[in-house]
Design a protein that fits this description.
The complex is a heterodimer of chains A (594) and B (372).
Chain A (H helix, E strand, L loop, with lengths): L4 E6 L2 H5 L2 H14 L12 E6 L11 E5 L2 E5 L4 H13 L11 H8 L17 H6 L4 H9 L2 H11 L11 H10 L6 E6 L8 H8 L1 H15 L3 E7 L3 H16 L4 E4 L4 E10 L8 H8 L23 E5 H13 L1 H5 L9 E8 L5 E6 L4 H8 L9 E6 L5 E4 L9 H6 L8 E6 L4 H15 L5 H18 L7 H15 L3 H5 L2 H9 L1 H8 L15 E3 L9 H5 L5 E2 L7 E2 L9 H5 L5 E3 L1
Parallel strand pairs in A: 1-2, 5-6, 5-9, 6-8, 10-14
Antiparallel strand pairs in A: 1-3, 3-4, 7-8, 10-11, 12-13, 12-14, 15-18, 16-17
Helix pairs in contact in A: 2-3, 6-10, 6-13, 7-8, 7-10, 9-10, 9-11, 10-13, 17-18, 18-19, 19-21
Chain B lengths: L2 H6 E6 L2 E6 L4 H7 L23 E4 L6 E2 L10 E3 L3 H15 L16 H9 L22 E3 L9 H8 L6 E4 L6 E4 L15 H5 L5 E3 L12 E6 L8 E7 L2 E7 L12 H5 L14 E3 L8 H4 L2 H4 E3 L2 H19 L6 E3 L5 H13 L6 E3 L4
Parallel strand pairs in B: 1-5, 15-16
Antiparallel strand pairs in B: 1-2, 3-4, 3-5, 6-9, 7-8, 10-11, 11-12, 13-14
Helix pairs in contact in B: 3-4
The chains are: A alpha/beta (594), B alpha+beta (372).
Bound molecules: flavin mononucleotide, iron/sulfur cluster (SF4) (6 copies) and FE2/S2 (inorganic) cluster (FES) (2 copies).
One iron/sulfur cluster binds next to helix 5 and helix 6 of chain B.
Chain lengths: 594, 372
């Protein structure tokens, strides 16, 4: 009896960057020379295929080898490791333990609950049959065959699904608004702009399982009664665009899109529109302006896009993750979905976990899970076992949550109650080495640069906020700066036109709330407690710790350090340019900065 | 409540006062119709509301954040407050932020006295120095005969862009750059030249501040020293109205009359900038009659027109024309003469002219130069 062998190679963007294409080729070469026949998906002897991102890109190239259902995951597979995996494991049946993914991988992987990402990293994203084999397009078929548009909307309402694009608006309700509008044409838009720095949840879904999004769009289009859909996706996602286009082509060939979907006389097709990488174009009204060929600037709501959207017609906009969830809700039932998460936040949420965390990557967890579990469980704790300081959620306009609130649950309401937001799922972990004033400044730099310039409070207000923060980090802060900062932050929130300006000051307000002492230290004591703000640092050499090894004197670019061999060295503060070289190079921790 | 009425009119309260208005209007429009003042900078009644300046913010009961009244459609039962401590604070902040990137230049500014920013700053008692930081120091652009652009005074209200794109349909200018560095400009900052711009000056007419001004009017008198004379354009039959701004008998510039029934404040290049003929020394202001016995009218001779023509009064000139027409008509018949009138005449004038040709001259030989 022949064995069922399957090898899947991660070919997400992270995998490809780590050399997955070469690894894949090496597998076919090695398999061939070992006499194992590889046929794509035929499952004759060995099924060697590509999969999308599995979230743990730091350990790419990730390869799964499974023999008769027993799976071994290999991490950081390089070309020279392929031969042993083929010979010892595929041929010999003995997994190569030393290459197998370790405890971090299992901590990371096993504590998640994957719904949206359940098929990412499992199936070949470029093969529609692979998707169909796991139940793909059954949900859309079921909806078109057995449910009325209103039934479909009711199902989504019952599931409790809320938009994953940031605002958390109930999806079923949004669709109902759309379905009730009478118009000669309506539009459905899938928002795949994903402009938050460091976010890649939507990219991974489109790269790893594009069909699940297309299927969600078919269901949404049927529910709201539209024949035309768009996917607005950033041009910086070439792999996602390519796989999406391919998936659309395959879906059309199968009759899943077009004039007669599933032979049921339903008409719907999808166009791909490339965004040029402006963060604000993720905002729905700016996105619409961009599709219309105008400068991507938001406009005031109301009227909402559901009433007056693309080309002035009723338009429903949903995020990638929202639409992927729709497919699974229909496939597995609204009750099942509603059983996950909390009372008001149902289902799961995908987060991009980054910063000073051991295991960074893309994770999916049930709504309502405590932050602590994510950071110390899945994330494996803080890098280098330093002290946790804060976690910033919600992307560039989210808030910073301090250690005392680590038991906060990850759901819309709980996050809002501590001054942060769910956003699209950014999660940046900060440790004792991070200066909170500097962090606030970092996020403001981003939002300020990405402001579209249309409205006064955001265009000039964020600039002035950033300038105040910059002055504080440079030691030029004044006593009443914090009053000005806080008042202006609130006014910008209250008076800006769109969500960008309305949330941009959040990082300031939350750091002011939880880390005011750090601001005071900068302004009053002219000191950066975390030792980050260069202008406020003084480098000195501790006499008792210095062994006179001369390393620091040798690396100092401006010759500010003097001292004889085996005697204490000294830094001339007039010359020091605070480059940190001596601090980095000293093996005896004798250089002090504060 | 009968449904027919409910669809067409909406009842709401503004500052506690009940107001009824046609559905589809915005809060700002209803306020203006009811004489309730709401400050605006980016709103221009010729254009779709922009919602950018955020000065027209009002509070609507049940809404957490203030809404821009220029963009928000009215709804049945809405309770609007146009002034409150919070709203005043936000408007002041907006003005302070604008001033933090604005030259303190009213004394030399062409727009002083007619500048919306200056007026609002005065009204709200806002000072220059509440926020400080980087300020623009961009070069002025006036590389064309008509329009002077000082970006440093721009408040980014978008009116110039919107009128050029959506009324003139020219699209010569758009917002460029991002964030603090956004500003209206031509593509790649190219100079305004006839191949991209029709020099209608609509952008200038829309600018609420001194960022876009009439180049030829510079230094010739501001709003306080000019008399505004409402008149009708003589260039074409559209009959646009506008104001001639006259300083000590001298025409300085043309400004828009938003109340004009025909053009509602809009003008083309001729009406806006073609006023120099009015006080040109070469302008013919009296009828001219060819001098007796002069037959040579070659360009050489015409260099001194008064050698060929003499000035006359209207009565004499009209009598002469009438007698010549009658002479020709009697001698050669009515179809030997005809009339050709100008597209610069109004419809009424053209009507009267055609009538005169048909009734007085008895011929259908009548035409007009309007061919576009
Ligand atoms: C500045 C800004 C950027 C945004 N970027 C995105 C984005 O990249 N992707 C997204 O889906 N939604 C984004 N949104 C939210 C969208 O405006 C919109 O609410 C969302 O796409 C609706 O989909 P949902 O109901 O499925 O969440 C952004 C909003 C703002 C204010
Ligand atoms: S808030 Fe910022 S991004 Fe949004 S419209 Fe205003 S300037 Fe543009
Ligand atoms: S911080 Fe840099 S410049 Fe200063 S003493 Fe150390 S090595 Fe020299
Ligand atoms: S634009 Fe207005 S506020 Fe600015 S200098 Fe001129 S008159 Fe003063
Ligand atoms: S003069 Fe007319 S065409 Fe030229 S930029 Fe201004 S509005 Fe546009
Ligand atoms: S130039 Fe004038 S009209 Fe144009 S955006 Fe600036 S202030 Fe507004
Ligand atoms: S020439 Fe231009 S401004 Fe004058 S009446 Fe005609 S359209 Fe109006
Ligand atoms: S691309 Fe391989 S795990 Fe993300
Ligand atoms: S007038 Fe409404 S925002 Fe400017």
């Amino acid at each position: 009896m022949s064995r069922q062998i399957s090898i899947s190679v991660c070919m997400g963007t992270g995998g490809l960057a780590a050399g997955a294409r070469e690894v894949m080729e090496m597998f076919s070469v090695e398999l061939a020379s070992a006499g194992v026949e590889t046929t794509l998906h035929a499952q004759k002897h060995c099924d060697l295929h590509r999969v999308g991102c599995r979230g743990f890109c730091a350990r790419d190239v990730l390869v799964d080898v499974s023999i008769d259902g027993t799976k071994t995951t290999y991490e950081q597979v390089t070309l020279d490791r392929v031969a042993r995996i083929v010979n010892e494991h595929v041929v010999g049946g003995q997994p190569v333990e030393e290459f197998a993914a370790g405890v971090d991988y299992h901590n990371f992987e096993d504590k998640q609950l994957k719904v949206v990402l359940s098929e990412c990293g499992l199936i070949d994203p470029e093969d529609i049959e692979a998707y169909i084999k796991v139940g793909g397009y059954e949900a859309a078929k079921k909806v078109l065959a057995t449910l009325s548009p209103q039934d479909t909307i009711d199902t989504i309402k019952l599931s409790g699904l809320r938009g994953r694009g940031g605002a958390g608006f109930p999806t079923g309700l949004k669709w109902e608004f759309g379905s009730k509008e009478q118009a000669s044409q309506k539009y459905l838009i899938c928002n795949a702009d994903e402009g938050d720095p460091g976010a890649f949840m939507d990219r991974s879904v489109v790269e790893g399982n594009p069909h699940v999004v297309i299927e969600g769009m078919i269901i949404a289009a049927y529910a709201i009664g539209t024949t035309k859909g768009y996917v607005y996706i950033r041009a910086e996602y070439p792999l996602a665009v390519q796989r999406l286009e391919l998936a659309l082509k395959h879906a059309r060939q199968k009759g899943f899109l077009g004039d007669n979907i599933f032979g049921r006389g339903v008409k719907f097709d999808i166009k791909v529109k490339l965004g040029a990488g402006a963060f604000v174009c993720g905002e729905e009204t700016a996105l619409i302006a961009s599709i219309e060929g105008n400068r991507g600037m938001p406009r005031s709501k109301p009227p909402f896009p559901a009433q007056k959207g693309l080309f002035g017609k009723p338009t429903i906009i949903n995020n990638v993750e929202t639409l992927a969830n729709v497919t699974y809700i229909i496939r597995r039932g609204a009750e099942w979905f509603a059983s996950l998460g909390t009372e008001k936040s149902k289902g799961t949420k995908v987060f991009a976990l980054t910063g000073k965390i051991k295991n960074s990557g893309l994770i999916e967890v049930p709504m309502g899970i405590p932050l602590r579990k994510v950071i110390y469980g899945i994330g494996g704790g803080i890098e280098k076992d330093r002290r946790f300081k804060a976690v910033q959620t919600g992307g560039p306009s989210g808030g910073c949550i301090p250690e005392s609130l680590l038991d906060t649950h990850l759901d819309y309401e709980s996050l809002a109650s501590v001054g942060s937001i769910m956003g699209s799922g950014g999660m940046v972990v900060l440790d004792e080495g991070d200066c909170m004033v500097n962090i606030a400044k970092y996020f403001l730099e981003f939002t300020q640069a990405e402001s579209c310039g249309k409205c006064t409070p955001c265009r000039v207000g964020t600039k002035r906020l950033l300038e105040i923060l910059t002055r504080i980090t440079e030691g030029k802060g004044k006593a009443n700066d914090l009053v000005t900062l806080e008042a202006l932050a609130r006014d910008v929130i209250d008076s800006s036109l769109c969500g960008l300006g309305q949330t941009a000051p959040n990082p300031i307000l939350s750091t002011l709330k939880y880390f005011r002492d750090e601001y005071d230290a900068h302004i009053i004591d002219k000191r950066c407690p975390a030792g980050v703000c260069k202008a406020l640092l003084t480098y000195t050499i501790k006499e008792d710790a210095c062994t006179g090894c001369t390393m620091c004197a040798r690396v100092c670019p401006v010759k500010a350090i003097t001292g004889e061999k085996k005697k204490t060295h000294y830094i001339d503060h007039g010359l020091c340019i605070k480059c940190n070289s001596c601090y980095d190079v000293c093996k005896f921790n004798a250089v002090d900065k504060r | 409540m009968t449904t027919a009425i409910a669809q067409d009119t909406i009842t709401l309260t503004i500052n506690g006062k009940t107001v009824t208005a046609a559905s589809g209007k915005t809060i700002l429009q209803v306020c203006r119709d009811s004489g309730i003042y709401v400050p605006t900078l980016c709103y221009d009644e010729r254009l779709e509301a922009y919602g950018g300046c955020r000065l027209c913010l009002v509070e609507v009961k049940g809404q957490g954040r203030p809404l821009s009244s220029c963009t928000t459609p009215i709804r049945e039962g809405m309770e609007v407050t146009t002034d409150s401590d919070r709203i005043t604070r936000l408007r002041k902040t907006v003005l302070e932020l604008l001033l933090s990137n604005h030259p303190n230049d009213c004394m030399l500014c062409e727009k002083a006295g007619a500048c919306t920013l200056q007026e609002l700053v005065y009204m709200y008692g806002v000072r220059y120095d509440n926020y400080y930081g980087e300020m623009w120091n961009l070069p002025k652009k006036d590389d064309n005969p008509f329009i002077s652009y000082d970006p440093n005074k721009c408040v980014l209200c978008g009116r110039c862009v919107n009128i050029c794109q959506n009324v003139v349909m020219k699209g010569t200018i758009d917002m460029t750059g991002r964030g603090f560095y956004s500003k209206p400009d031509t593509a790649f900052g190219k100079p305004l030249t006839p191949d991209i711009c029709v020099f209608c000056g609509q952008c200038v007419s829309a600018c609420p501040v001194g960022a876009l001004t009439e180049k030829q009017a510079r230094g010739k008198g501001r709003v306080g020293s000019v008399e505004r004379v409402r008149t009708t354009c003589t260039y074409c039959g559209t009959g646009c109205n506008f104001y001639l701004n006259v300083n000590k008998g001298k025409i300085v510039k043309v400004t828009s009359d938003y109340a004009a029934p025909v053009n509602k404040g809009n003008l083309c290049v001729k009406g806006r900038f073609g006023y120099d003929f009015i006080q040109h020394p070469d302008r013919i202001t009296k009828p001219l009659i060819r001098r007796e016995g002069v037959t040579d009218t070659s360009p050489e001779v015409l260099k001194d027109p008064m050698a060929v023509f003499r000035e006359a009064e209207w009565d004499e000139a009209l009598d002469l024309v009438a007698s010549k027409f009658m002479e020709l008509k009697n001698k050669y018949g009515p179809d030997s003469v005809g009339g050709f009138s100008s597209s610069r005449c109004t419809n009424e004038e053209n009507y009267l002219f055609a009538k005169w040709v048909r009734v007085a001259l008895n011929t259908n030989n009548v035409d007009n130069c309007a061919r576009v």
